[in-house]
């Protein structure tokens, strides 16, 4: 994706609306999900993400200065979210009670009860991580970014990102340890546990 997005940026700079639409289709949802880790509210995350793409198109003649387009998008979203939070604090609008948001189950309605419970447990475990740790875990596991890219996006050292990822995986492993007395039948659950184990072993 890194090479593809570079090509898209080059074409957008030349005024290619088709390339802009392709970029929007590929990254809008990712940007919304990332923004929501900061601002918590879906509507606000969508608004910030939409504004980012509008500004990107309006300032497309400056895109040649961007060395890493993917990191650029994430950093831009992060900065926009932080600005929004600062503004909201001044107006006493933003609430920080999002940790109590009800989590949706990932599994289909036909999943076995035990699989649904484990899926919920994994979701809750991820969402209960400290904010920075949760963001790092999701960027690496769900968005597939590298630790050095996440370090740039969040303004942290690579070592800090690695440590936070290790702590996140260790915490998740401990949380679900009581559930590992049986072998999950669901492919989605087996996949999640396999990925979790692989990351944990890699970081040891």
Task: Describe, in plain words, how this protein is organized in 3D.
The structure is a single chain. The protein has 204 residues and is an all-alpha fold. It has two domains: 2-91, RNA polymerase sigma factor, region 2, helix turn helix motif (Rna Polymerase Sigma Factor, Chain: A); 102-203, Arc Repressor Mutant, subunit A (Orthogonal Bundle), CATH 1.10.10.10. Helices cover 71% and strands 0% of the residues. The protein contains nine helices and no strands. The chain has helices at 2-13, 17-39, 42-58, 69-91, 113-127, 131-141, 147-154, 158-176, 187-203. Helix 2 packs across helix 4 and helix 8 (158-176) crosses helix 9 (187-203). The longest helix has 23 residues, at 17-39. The protein starts with a helix and ends with a helix. The model is unreliable at 92-111, 182-187 and 200-204 (pLDDT under 50). It comes from Pedobacter ureilyticus. Residues 121-172 form the RNA polymerase sigma factor 70 region 4 type domain.
